[in-house]
Description:
Mean pLDDT: 89
Shape: globular
Strand order of the largest sheet: 6-7-8-3-9-10-12-11-13
Oligomer: single chain
Structural class: alpha/beta
Helix content: 25-40%
CATH topology of the largest domain: Rossmann fold
CATH class of the largest domain: Alpha Beta
CATH architecture of the largest domain: 3-Layer(aba) Sandwich
Bound molecules: iron/sulfur cluster
Number of helices: 11
Strand content: 15-25%
Number of strands: 13
Amino acid sequence: xxxxxxxxxxxxxxNAPLIEVRDLVTSFSTEAGRIKAIEGVGFIVRKxxxxxxxxxxxxxxxxxxxxxxxxxxxxxxxxxxGEIRLRGQDIAQLPVEGMNHIRGRQISMIFQEPMTALNxxxxxxxQLREVFDIHRSDLSKAQARTACIELLQKVGIPxxxxxxxxxxxxxxxGMRQRVMIAMALAGKPDILIADEPTTALDVTIxxxxxxxxLDLQAExxxxxxxxxxxxxVIAEMCDDVLVMYAGKVAESASVKDLFSTxxxxxxxxxxxxxxxxxSRRKTILPxxxxxxxxxxxxxxxxxxxxxxxxxxPICETEPPPLYRVGSxxxxxxxxxDNIKDESAGG
Length: 346
Ligand code: SF4
């Protein structure tokens, strides 16, 4: 099933898609056999837009990001099917050399835990200079050093000149994430993928890093794909949102539409479980009963059926297609079957 999701206004010309993912299927080989970690994922992101991808652990958010970056663990992770069109060029099966020209220059990624992405035995300046050596080989050594210092300054690192000579363990978690962001931006990418970049940070530092990403996005006009399990962050940061459940797209919409008129029973459940300012103290928040199905033992039909308060007989037999329920709003649920003619795919 193709699950195209058009995020952002317009579909051609000046605001043509920067990235268009179509019907993406990524699988992993495991001791228990091959599993599909994502199936039929699709969306579009345009210049200057921030798309949030939200869902519980294991729903396929990070696998989607790693598939786009072509950084799936080898040899187990494979893109089985689908297209990842970057300015029209399908990079889903592009050879490694081709991807090396794209990563950093056209798409960059920042990860949840900067400590695993940064090298503990090299100074920060050296790691940053290596990125410039790859993407800006026209710069002299002195120019590259100046550019590194400017970039560290831009991401809010105080006293950047002396930080260049420090090691990763000498700086805080928030500063490490700022260094990661600097490295990701060195090649001036069109698209930044941020995979839960603030999960490992405490709350005040989280807010600073989110604001930094927003400021940099506004300044550069790059598109951002922001992966999180936190709907509050989606509301703060994003223009559009893709809700994923058990490897599939459950719903996609503008952030405004998703929060004002959520359609999928899963999205509705997620929104009900967020505390609000007028929630009474000691109120027990509603939860979505049941567990996400294992990817090793997926049900036929809708993957949300065992937790859905509105499940019908058809939900047990056929996976629901994606129905378009409004401009830029699509939902994978049989409750919207009455507008089947406007189905968004599948
Ligand atoms: Fe619930 Fe059926 Fe919709 Fe799935 S398709 S969310 S089980 S009503």
